[in-house]
Amino acid sequence: MAAIFNLNHPAHTVHWHFFTMSVSNLIVIILMLIVFALAIAIPFPRHGGAEGGTTS
Amino acid sequence: MSAVKGSNWTVKVREKAVGALPPDKLLPDGVPAYVSSWIYVFGVLSIAALVVIIGSGTILALKGPGWWHFTGVGHFFNSIHMWSVEVFFFVMVVHLWGKFWMASWRGGRTRVWVTGAITFLVAVPCALTGYVSQQNFDAQWISTQAKDAMNAVGIGSFFNLTNFGQMYSWHIYLLPLAVVALVGAHVLLVRTHGVVPPFELPTDKSTAPATNGQTDVREVAEITPAEIKTSTTQGAQS
Q1: Min Cα–Cα distance to chain B from A38, Å
Q2: Which DSSP category does A10 fall into?
Q3: Looking at chain A from residue 13 to 42, which residues have their Cβ under 8 Å from any Cβ of chain B?
Q4: Of all residues in chain B, what percent carry a pLDDT higher than 70?
Q5: Is B216 helix (H, G, I), strand (E, B) or coil?
């Protein structure tokens, strides 16, 4: 990762009133929220030949 | 077997175990139709990540810090171990959110929910003790910073983050043992009670599952052949 991102500096943080969090942690939380939303929104693949039900 | 029935504790344990979890429930050949959603996949993804964690951690423990710090292959397995923990918590949190919003404690599944929640709570110190088990300056820095938190809550005398041997024991033996045992209990409870069904949709009461969180309790005669066909998917998602 160090070859891709410059990690030779103190961590960036987000401050908003009492809220303080590192940018890396914030990115992970946002990614989890996106994956959670996609897991609900994206239809699960079905096998061929299903009739009338939600899966087979 | 019947001759010793009632007098042999192994028979009693076996009969109780088989009664609570018959083989066809322990290792089913199908899952309910409502499980065909990506949100139901994150439980088994958590288990898959845990398997990688245990496997890579076992290799690291066998090879030692000189290997994981100073060889290319050691670096690789060190990274596999760290990133599999990241994946484990990532998918476990999504699993937790999914089960929370579908109220997965319904239908007598309180123990399923509680074992899952305790697993999450135990997994956190299991992972954090890994930071102080690295055997490098990073571990020393983290241990001297984090010990203040332990002292502040009054447990620093018997959970000493600057004691490497103690932290290493917690990290590679005691806490993983607890996590694996809890996950095992969690999975067996899911098998016993079944995967929690989604909430009933008010517009489609004829085909929706039961409202009290029980798996499909309709009479067999009420279930159409098409539903039977489509409610037996291969695999075992949880």
Answers
A1: 8
A2: P
A3: 28, 31-32, 35-36, 38-40, 42
A4: 83
A5: coil
- Report DSSP state, residue B215: S
Distance from CA of A55 to the nearest CA of B (A): 5
Angle (CA) A13 B97 A14, round 5°: 10
pLDDT at B3 (0 to 100):
55
Q: Are the C-beta atoms of residues A55 and A46 closer than 8 Å to each other?
A: yes
SS3 B181: helix
Identity of the residue in B36, B39, B93 whose CB atom sits nearest the CB atom of A54: B36
Question: Domain B103-194: which CATH class?
Answer: mainly alpha
Strand partners, A22: A13
> Residue ranges per domain, chain B?
37-88, 103-194
Model pTM score = 0.81
Give B140-154 pLDDT, tens digit per residue: 999 999 999 999 999
Report chain B residues touching chain A, CB-CB < 8 A. 33-39, 41-42, 86, 90, 93-94, 97-98, 224, 226-227, 229-233
| Domain ranges within chain A, ordered by starting residue | 13-40
- Report the pLDDT averaged over residues B79-101: 97
